[in-house]
Amino acid sequence: MAPESQLQQQEMSWALLMRAAQGGDARRYDELLRSITPFVRNLVRRYCRDPHLAEDVVQDVLLTVHRVRHTWDPQRPFSPWLASIAARRGIDRIRRATRISRHEVSDELAMETFSVPAANNESGALRAAEAIEPLLAALPERQRRALEAVKLRGLSVAEAARESGQSETALKVSVHRAVKALRRLVADGKDGGE
Amino acid sequence: MEQPSTEQLIASLSRGLAPVRPLRPPARRALLWLGAVAVLLGIALLRFADLAAWAAHHAQWRMAIEAAATLLTGVTAVVAAFHLSLPDRSSLWRYAPLPPLALWIATSGLGCLQYGLGLGPPGDRMGDSMHCFGFIIGVSVPLAVLLFAVLRRARPLDPLPVALTGALGVAALAAFVLQFFHRFDVTAIDLVTHLAAVLCVVAVAGASRRILATDR
Predict the structure, then answer these.
(1) Residues of chain B with C-beta less than 8 angstroms from the C-beta of A26
(2) Residue range A159-178, pLDDT digits in tens
(3) Could you tell me if B144 and B37 are in contact, meaning their C-beta atoms sit under 8 angstroms apart?
(4) What pTM, to 2 d.p., does this model score?
């Protein structure tokens, strides 16, 4: 089959699946997300060379697709809509990485631990805990609880969702937003401190 | 093969999927919003403005062009904001309000030149200018609240251009309404004050852009 007609077929298939997903068909939505993931991954790798970072962006794109799925107009092609979301998220990630690299210095020695027990004191951890406390307090209640459960207490998403009474999707979204808000708060703090 | 976390994310997003109603095309949404605002402002103008005096004042071609350019700036900026709020629409929409905006400033500037940069009649009326400033801000704020409430339904991925064009739209519409109560020609001070008010609205909206991107 010619590549052009293959693309057309893919476009038609995605449009059909997305139309069904907008109507609430979870099975077709699952099929759509699995089908678009390799396409999104290819697009995202144009912006991010690091495969781990790229996978983070792929997940960010999937979350965004979920969040704004009502903005796709069934009268219009699906691929450009998806590609612009992937490009936007890729650009956001590059900007964020650039911003972070401007403010952070990588020092491997700083992570080294020593054989003398006294050298491995917990003052650094305590300082970090003290520093993050006010930042966590600045987050909305729901986001703070989700972040604490998953990232600090190490619960699985399913456990944290059960504990908070939220769906797993809602919990993941809360954690995602909390991390974004924390990054923003840290960046603002550094900007303000300079 | 998918990494497990992406697999899990897909499974969790699909589980319990709620149906959504696709947004109407942006041009139609913009026209609906503009129609509703036209009705509200039309009722206010019929009630409070001297329409005969406005018509007489705008019989001059320059005044008529200035009014049309102000209105067109408002309409194109609002339409642009609706387009920019969606992921797959051209980012060139952000430039759509610029030609009518340039025409608005040019025709107002021409009026200033005719009155010797505000020094001739009707003169520099700082008090009136401050009234104009307050009027533009006072009308823009409720219009911006109404517009942002509709625009945020799209959860724009890049809220800054949406906020800026939307704010320019409401400020220009406010400046258009002001012309019904501005029974004298625009002086240099008036022009600067009007533009300062528009810039204030745009700046505040730009700073508040996150309102557009948040879910709740």
Answers:
(1) 14-17
(2) 788 777 777 788 888 888 88
(3) no
(4) 0.73
